[in-house]
Backbone:
């Protein structure tokens, strides 16, 4: 029996919107784009979708494409379950995908999963008992980033039930195997579409993928194994941390369902701006004003560091405004490593706005000396 795969009046290249010289990659991209657009489960045209798929099954196969280009039609001897003259048999192809070498289900998998709910097998393997992760933001000072600190945070979240210790069963009762899935946590569902009937594997609705059910649910958590509660957590923030860096604390997120693994806590850090120092990486920058007599004659000035200590900085005679001095090792500690950044001091010459009579007299004398 001959299985006719193509319509005598249909131009497959026009259906996919490609030229006769189109590459396999261009044909595949065109098919995916049109399949998503016209899929019936997305409100598309069922007839148009079948035409698009029929065209792709021919043009994506080198042998069939050669036959089509030469004879205008494609023949496939003895395809099981085919309906002669009515296009491709989806039911047979899905059930015999390993034997049907001409039909590439891999190219259709994303279309099927998007609209028909396939991919349930992957979903069934997901850990439904695991608690959710939590992210909180903490703002610290630049001084705390310099030395490190410990911050307390109060989290309102799901915590393990104190009555059942998280297993969801009333104390003194048993946990039994789920009758619906026989302990597997998965059930098969048959879905009917215009393409035929398909079997998918999904999470068991009775036990929510656990495979077990409490003989009697806990009176406090109603079988969930967790309740709303509070927890105060000490967060150790290391020296050298910077804005937008995060600290991961394992197991301090939401409690898992029915004794499942808890989620993690992620603490994102924001370092407040400082009124004296500006941070750039692990280096600190500060601006210090000096008088023009100091700049001209030179001398020592006191510099206050972020550690609240004072150091002496030697100013050479004739220093100009804007001169930057580097003080090694007085910056921020390198995060997760050794050593520190540097402190950079920019000098700015301050011009007085009000002068005493004596100061004016001295400046007049300096003026006469050419200064």
Residues:
């Amino acid at each position: 029996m001959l299985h006719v795969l193509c319509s005598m009046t249909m131009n497959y290249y026009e259906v996919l919107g490609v030229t006769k010289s189109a590459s396999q990659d261009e044909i595949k991209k065109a098919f995916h784009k049109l399949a998503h657009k016209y899929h019936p489960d997305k409100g598309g045209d069922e007839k148009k979708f079948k035409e698009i798929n029929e065209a792709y099954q021919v043009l994506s196969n080198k042998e069939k494409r050669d036959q089509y280009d030469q004879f205008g039609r494609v023949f496939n001897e003895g395809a099981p379950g085919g309906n002669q003259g009515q296009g491709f048999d989806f039911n047979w192809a899905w059930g015999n995908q390993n034997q049907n070498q001409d039909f590439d289900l891999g190219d259709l998998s994303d279309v099927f999963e998007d609209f028909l709910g396939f991919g349930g097998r992957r979903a069934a393997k997901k850990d439904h008992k695991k608690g959710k992760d939590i992210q909180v933001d903490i703002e610290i000072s630049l001084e705390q980033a310099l030395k490190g600190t410990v911050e307390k945070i109060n989290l309102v979240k799901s915590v393990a039930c104190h009555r059942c210790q998280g297993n969801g069963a009333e104390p003194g009762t048993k946990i039994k195997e789920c009758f619906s899935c026989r302990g597997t946590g998965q059930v098969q569902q048959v879905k009917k579409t215009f393409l035929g009937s398909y079997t998918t594997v999904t999470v068991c609705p009775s036990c929510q993928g656990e495979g077990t059910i409490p003989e009697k649910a806990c009176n406090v958590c109603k079988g969930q194994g967790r309740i709303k509660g509070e927890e105060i957590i000490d967060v150790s923030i290391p020296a050298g941390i910077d804005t937008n860096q995060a600290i991961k604390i394992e197991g301090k997120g939401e409690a898992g369902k029915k004794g499942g693994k808890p989620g993690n806590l992620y603490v994102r850090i924001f370092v407040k701006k400082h009124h004296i120092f500006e941070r750039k990486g692990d280096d600190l920058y500060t601006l210090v004003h000096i008088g023009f007599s100091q700049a001209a004659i030179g001398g020592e000035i006191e510099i206050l560091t972020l550690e609240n200590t004072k150091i002496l900085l030697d100013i050479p005679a004739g220093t100009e405004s804007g001169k930057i001095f580097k003080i090694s090792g007085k910056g921020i500690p390198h995060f997760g490593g050794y050593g520190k950044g540097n402190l950079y001091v920019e000098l700015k010459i301050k011009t007085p706005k009000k002068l005493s009579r004596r100061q004016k007299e001295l400046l007049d004398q300096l003026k006469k000396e050419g200064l």
Q: What stands out?
A: The chain has ten helices and 17 strands.
